[in-house]
Amino acid sequence: MQYDVVIVGAGLVGQSIAAALVQGNQALKQPLKTALIDPNFSQQPPAAGTDISDFDLRVSALTEKTRAFLEQLGAWQNIPAERLAPYTSMVVWDGEGTGAVNFAAADLHVPARGHIVENRHTLWGIQQSLQASADAGHGAVDILAEKVRYLDNRDAQGYTPVALENGTLLQAKLVIGADGALSRVRAWAGLPTREWDYGHHAIVATVRCEQPVAATAWQRFRPQGPLAFLPMPHDEHLASIVWSTSEEEADELLALDDDAFNAALTQAFEGRLGAVTASSAKARFPLRQRHAKDYWCEGIVLAGDAAHTIHPLAGQGVNLGFKDAQTLAEELLRAQAKGLDIGSALVLARYQRRRQADNLSTMAVMEGFKRLFAADDPLLRWMRNEGMRLFDRLLPVKQHVVMKAMGLD
């Protein structure tokens, strides 16, 4: 079974690459034959309930650039409007002082800074766009709900063998690793990473607040880590929380009953939205920064979390992944149109040049914020708060930062 592209991992990044390639095939004399491999692939429509327990614990703050990319794919149109939560402001403050910054969409004269969307609804929207392309006769992606056993070295004909657990052997001109932070494709390819543990665990849940969230992404920086409340759709009193803290405190918090957890959360957030009156089931995950030194070797390339993971304090991780997807698809379609080997150094190095600098600079900024607000030196704390107050008054600088965060730079 020979393919031009085999994508390992059918998450947001993997499926958006597939959708972009299928869409681009319409302009090619020789369309790219693509397969998508993931043992957990599912095409079940997401639950549409509105109880606090019906919302996906995994949500993303999608930027305007990401929204435009998903709209281009025909995926954004498939996400129900009642599952979108646009936010117009992001309010950030220092939990150890009085400094605060308000990043408002009004500063750029745009209706929203971004949208909070449940990951399962975004994924369903992409799947529907893939199906629409197939129905329109633009080509289908072969979905293989199997596990990859191993990858072999690229052969003399320019194909990388991909062996599946069920015994099937595929041959691909290019294998795309979109299989997450613990990427097996990255390990098989021998692509080394630079990485370190943040010493944080993130607790996620959906909560009900006494006061409206007011279409605002709220974030308090504590010495133990940032705590974010993100607006959710349907009910202005619902919020998705991302509580970054030490492993020890995470253990203590998750051992509490709901009432005690809600009280601890209210206190940690300084009661900014009144009392937290209810919370859903909780989940946790360790936080680790990771960046592949190279995103490719001949016949294999990485995208999304397989190439880089960062702290979730500004919600940029998934947006960087979508940028990878859009750029990689552009480069592969360009190469195919010119008759180039899509798995060659010429093509893959260009993708890396276009994406690596942006990923590294964003990671550096997030690391800087994390260290700045974790510092407990009194002088540094005073300077940090004075700097936040000054920054909040410098509208042109704030506008530039907001544009960068929205992907509009």
How would you describe the overall organization of this protein?
This protein has 409 residues and is of the alpha+beta class. Helix content is 35%, strand content 29%. The chain contains 10 helices and 20 strands. The strands form 3 sheets. Strands 5, 6, 12, 13, 14, 15, 16, 17 and 20 form a 9-stranded mixed beta sheet that branches. Strands 1, 2, 8, 9, 10, 11, 18 and 19 form an 8-stranded mixed beta sheet that branches. Strands 3-7-4 form a 3-stranded antiparallel beta sheet. Helix 1 links the parallel strand 1 and strand 2. Helix 1 runs parallel beside helix 3, helix 1 runs parallel beside helix 7 and helix 7 packs antiparallel against helix 8. The chain is globular, with a radius of gyration of 22 Å. It starts with a strand and ends with a helix. The mean pLDDT is 89.
